[in-house]
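Tokens for chain A. Residues wanted.
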């Protein structure tokens, strides 16, 4: 096995030292796994550059620079010659392990490797995309089309008396009657107090029917309301109407949202364009 070093690293290699003379941190097995996380990206460069010869590994200047940058980011200084030689050795060990793993198809079914490859591919696509620019009219049109993201929603303050035991409609209605007639509820129920709950949250938690009923309920009175988890004893304390957002106050947010949405569309279009060179077959499942 042979390696090709840059002139700077050749000087470092001219005075080899036994691994037993390296500082303790360089001899730690854990270092291999720590450095692997950062240097694995550089492995792709070597593999792609030597795809026609899988038995040749070249430690390029780019890989050395990557190693130095990672070392400096972690330790706040540049590596010395001895440390640089150790980093090369660690990278070489990991490169051998990586290639052997690929040869044994150990990457198959590994979600972590798959996600890294997808992330890198999207990063390459992103570098070739031109970020769109929006004029004032386009941003205002986007703002109006997506007002639900920016308008202040209706909010509700309410209480829920949780009846112990049965929570059928009949039982809850009878319980509500006792509460409205002045019978203390804390003897047989727990009390929950909610402040400033937006309507969307109510729909998600209790259901749309509950949100509609609460919105039309009079404040200060207990009512039996249906939810997606059964009937509940609810008293509305206060309700605040929705407040329309002002474009000028949200302009920066709107511009970022518009840019993100358009970039997502461009990414999708780019991926679909790449997909045109593939033939897609869907295997039919036989039903017995």
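Reply:
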């Amino acid at each position: 096995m042979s390696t090709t070093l840059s002139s700077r690293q050749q000087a470092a290699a001219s005075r080899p030292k036994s691994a037993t003379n390296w500082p303790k941190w360089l001899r730690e097995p854990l270092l291999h796994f720590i450095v692997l996380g950062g240097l694995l990206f550089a492995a792709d460069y070597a593999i792609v550059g030597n795809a026609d010869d899988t038995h040749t590994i070249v430690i390029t200047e780019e890989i050395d620079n990557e190693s130095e940058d990672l070392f400096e980011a972690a330790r706040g200084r540049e590596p010395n010659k001895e440390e640089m030689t150790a980093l090369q050795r660690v990278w070489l060990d990991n490169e051998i392990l990586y290639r052997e793993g690929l040869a044994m198809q150990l990457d198959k079914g590994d979600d972590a490797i798959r996600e890294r490859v997808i992330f890198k591919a999207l990063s390459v696509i992103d570098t070739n995309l031109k970020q769109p620019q929006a004029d004032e009219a386009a941003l205002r049109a986007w703002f109006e089309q997506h007002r639900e993201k920016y308008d202040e929603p209706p909010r509700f303050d309410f209480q829920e008396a949780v009846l112990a035991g049965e929570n059928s409609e009949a039982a809850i209605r009878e319980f509500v009657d006792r509460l409205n007639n002045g019978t203390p509820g804390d003897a047989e129920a727990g009390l929950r107090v909610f402040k400033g709950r937006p309507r969307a949250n109510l729909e998600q938690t209790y259901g749309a029917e509950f949100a509609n009923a609460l919105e039309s309920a009079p404040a200060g009175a207990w009512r039996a309301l249906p939810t997606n988890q059964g009937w509940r004893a609810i008293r509305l304390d206060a309700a605040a109407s929705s407040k329309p957002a002002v474009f000028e106050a949200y302009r920066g947010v709107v511009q970022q949202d518009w840019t993100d949405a358009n970039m997502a569309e461009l990414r999708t279009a780019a991926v679909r364009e790449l997909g045109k060179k593939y033939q897609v077959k869907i295997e039919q499942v036989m039903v017995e």
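The mean pLDDT is 75. Residues 40 and 95 are 8 Å apart (CA to CA).
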